[in-house]
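Can anyone check this?
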Amino acid sequence: MINIHKKTLEDIEFNTVLDQVAEHSITSLGKAQVLAIEPISNPNSLEESLLLTNEYLASFANDNRIPNHGFEPISHEIKLLNIENSFLETQSFRKISNISESSNNLIKFLEKFKDYYPNLFEFSQSVEATKVIITEIDAIIDKYGDVKDRASDTLYQLRRAANNIKGKINQSFNVALTTSNASDYLDEIKESVVDNRRVLAVKSMHRRKVKGTIMGSSKTGSIVYIEPEATFRYTRELQNLEYDMKEEIERILKQLTNFLRPFIELLKDYQTFLTRIDTIYSKAKYANSINAVLPERNQHMELSLIDAFHPLLLVSNKKQNQKTYPQSIRLDEENRIIVISGPNAGGKSITLKTVGLLQVMLQSGLLIPVHERSNVCFFERILTDIGDNQSIENHLSTYSYRLKQMNYFLKKCNDKTLFLIDEFGTGSDPELGGALAETFLEEFYHRNAYGIITTHYSNLKVLANELPAMLNANMMFDEKSLEPIYKLALGQAGSSFTFEVAQKNGIPFSLVNRAKKKIERGKVRFDATIAKLQKERSKLEKTEQSLKENERKKQIEADKLEETNIKIQKKLESYQELYDSNQRLIYLGQKFNDIADKFFNNKRKRDLMDELFKLVQVENSKREKVSAKQRQAQKAKETIVKLEAEQKVEVIRKNKKEAKIKLANKPEPPKPVLKVGDRVRMHDGKAVGSIDIIEKNKATVNYGIFTTNVNLDLLELVERN
């Protein structure tokens, strides 16, 4: 059973996180539910809460955005529905219709995209989707919250009659206005409005000449306001109709209210469902704003936070455009307790609060700003002692309060506990307080508890170095400027840099030197040794970063050279192929030129054709002479040459060779059967002719200016006749 004390939530400022989450809520009920979030004790409920938030977070990054879930609370309407003979107002029905429609839209959407949002879909299945409520309300109430004319036949007839009477009222008043004005009975303003009724502005001297009801007079008494007699009769009739309409509307609303009463539980479910969705939405929006993720979870008590940010500090620094430094911390069975030491203002307390706050957030169903490869576990108890712990109400000093806290820790601490203690052992005599703190720490250690403490006590640093499952750590400082780096270094205790920081802040060296002489020489040497080791570690880390940067640059240069080499090799191959092709064309051109010269001199066509045919046969015979074995040998030779020239691109060449082998093994398509009239050309030739005659596997091909007999095997089809 997970049990996290209220004091822990106050120490790590968990409520401030909830305030920031609540800023993203879009409903009042959702905001109230966010502010009431607390650690979840049931592991299954906790896992469900985390998965729901993570799925909603994922919806911000894809095209299937979850529909709007906004609604007005209907708690008051639900209370009225539980009161017999009560009825709802029109705006209440509009709110109920809207909340029903929002719920139905969400349920239908999650059902449609259940592959994207399986956990949200499963969550929505506990709520029934029905359009009955929406249909019934929309048939009676319009989108402006008024009862429709067709809500009942009686209401329709009454409103129709009322509209007719209104027309008669206007007509009768206009007649009286025209008549009285023509008789010069009216004042300059002619008419006015009294009690929302049009009246004539009659001069006081003519008031007896105008028939009607006196509705009032001006302050001076010079004007009397009279409603014409005919208008008055119609107005009385309209008032009767309006009363009947009011009675009919009330009857309709009571009927609609009675229809909704059986759906009270469903309406409660809708409001609960949308409130929970708003809470999930708020947590997802907050997670998106701080780049939070859902890390891996484990059952074997291993806490590995990689690049963990303090969320409150992250939000604050973003507003001020300042950098926030992440921390990486690991607690497991072999390193259960970390003792962080080092100077003040180096980030020890922030590191402590970061671990506590992220752990409580996670165990409350909130995502946390860490690297996605982080791995976390859940603790049954999280105990904290952070900040100024003086208790004015109980008249307790800081140390008395700390002792009371330690007593509580000793009662609750076990192997499922995470304890976080800031400035452990302070508040009393350094030697006595340090000894008692060491005893407490040993007790926590033997109970197999997990924890992180910050301290300046050397005996606690020594204890952490002696016990196998305890680890020293320090907040690193720049060895030259003595400015904090805000980076946690595991495996080594930290120096307080007491004298160095004092000198940096202007304390005279003579006073610092006198202070050094007042303490044990061994203590100074121990602290100096730690400081020296920290400086060496800082130098080594800078050297490591520099080497990594150089390695990265060299790798980039190597990649560029390899890319250039590949391009050059491809160009060489292309040039070689082009050169071979040009040499062959030059040779053929010379032979053709010789044949053309002979024909120019003797004008013998037959000799010309014989010479051309011989040239073609010679070229083809060259192709036939190259045997398969010779080709393989030539390919092997070329491969060896290429391998020697391309040692750095061996993989690319291997892929090219495999592609060639696949192409060579690919079965050739069946050759088409050539027929008379087909347009053909010789293999590797460009001239196209048509077949005139086919005899004994030979074809007579007509090229227009000449014809020739060619073996069918040497021809390829260009166009079918």
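Reply from J.R.: I decoded it. DSSP finds 22 helices and 19 strands in the chain.
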